[in-house]
Every structure is written in C-alpha cells, then in structure tokens.
Amino acid sequence: MKIKCVNCEREVNLDHAVFENYFGTIKCFSCSSMMEVKIKDKVLQEASLLTLNKHFARLRDRYAGSIA
User: For the whole model, what pTM was predicted?
Assistant: First the structure.
C-alpha cells in the first residue's frame, strides 16, 4: 500500500498485512514528518500532519493515569 506524505507529497510504502485496518501515526522517511492516518479495509480514509501539540496531547492522555 502506498500513500502520499501530506507534507512533502512523496510516497510512503506500508505493509498491507500490518496496515489493513489502522488508526495511528506513520513517519515519512523522506522528510521525517509524522502523520496521523486512518486506514480501513486497505483504503486510506484520512491523513493529517501530526503537530507537536497534538502529539503531546495524545501522549498526555495515554499516560495520565500511569503517573502518580
């Protein structure tokens, strides 16, 4: 499966078996941008550039309960 980077528009190759149904982050190895993608049944549904603020908010939400 190939998708275009939302920052540099270069192709990013993804393994079909791993990314058949996937929601999460992907890194473009050409420009190092992080993208948040939603793939359903091997079809890209959404792709957006992951900003640092959004990334840190996701990390905060994920680990908020584990820090005491």
Answer: 0.68
